[in-house]
Write a structure and sequence with these properties.
The protein is mostly helical. The protein has 2 domains: about 1-45; about 55-165, no CATH class. About 70% of the residues lie in helices and about 0% in strands. It has helices at about 5-20, 25-45, 55-75, 80, 85-130, 150-165. α1 (about 5-20) runs antiparallel to α2, α3 (about 55-75) runs antiparallel to α5 and α3 runs parallel beside α6 (about 150-165). It is flat. The two termini are about 25 Å apart.
C-alpha cells in the first residue's frame, strides 16, 4: 500500500478517527495503533509471488521481542555489574554482554540476510573467480522488507542505550 493511493486514504481515515476516539484510553490507543501499523506493514509492497501477510510482521515481532527481553535482562544486572566484588560483577557483566550480543546478532543477522546476502555471495564468487576458482554465485530470492535498515538500527539503539545506562527499559510491550 503506497501513500499517494486511494487504498491508503481508505486505510488512513478510519485509523485517524479511531486514534482520535481513543484519546482518553492510552492502552487501547497504543494497541489500536500497533494493530493498524502491523496491518499497514502486512499490506506492504505488491510483489510476485506475494509473501504471506505475516511474513514481514513476524520479523518485526521477532526483533521487538528480542530487544525488549534483552533490554530488561541487561538492566536487571546493571547494579551487580557495578559491584566492587568481582565475583558478583564479572558474571553480571558477562550476562549483560551476552544479551547485547544476542540483540546484535539477531538484528544485524536479519539485516544482513535480507539486504546484503546476495551482495556478499556475488562478491565472494567474483573474488574466487579472480583467484582461478570456479564458484557459482547463488542468488537468494528474497523480498526486502520495507524499512528494515531503519527499524533495525532504531531497535538496536534502544538496546545499546539500555546497555550504556542512558535509558531504562520499557516496563511493558504495550508501549
Amino acid at each position: 500500500m503506497l501513500f499517494p493511493t486511494f487504498d491508503f486514504l481508505l486505510f488512513a481515515l478510519p485509523v485517524i478517527v479511531g486514534f482520535w476516539l481513543l484519546s482518553g484510553r492510552p492502552v487501547a490507543r497504543s494497541l489500536f495503533v500497533l494493530v493498524a501499523s502491523y496491518f499497514f506493514y502486512m499490506a506492504g509492497p505488491k510483489t510476485e509471488p506475494p509473501p504471506a501477510p505475516w511474513y514481514f510482521v513476524g520479523l518485526l515481532v521477532f526483533s521487538t521481542v528480542l530487544d525488549f527481553v534483552a533490554g530488561r535482562e541487561i538492566h536487571k544486572r546493571s547494579e551487580d555489574a557495578d559491584a566492587d566484588d568481582p565475583r558478583v560483577a564479572l558474571p553480571a557483566k558477562r550476562v549483560r554482554n551476552l544479551w547485547l550480543l544476542a540483540s546484535l546478532v539477531g538484528n544485524l543477522g536479519l539485516l544482513g540476510y535480507f539486504k546484503y546476502a546476495n551482495f556478499f555471495m556475488s562478491a565472494f564468487a567474483d573474488v574466487a573467480g579472480a583467484l582461478g576458482l570456479s564458484v557459482t554465485a547463488y542468488r537468494l530470492d528474497v523480498i526486502l522488507p520495507l524499512g528494515i535498515s531503519f527499524y533495525t538500527f532504531q531497535s538496536l539503539s534502544y538496546t545499546l542505550d539500555v546497555w550504556r545506562g542512558r535509558l531504562t527499559p520499557e516496563p511493558s510491550l504495550r508501549r
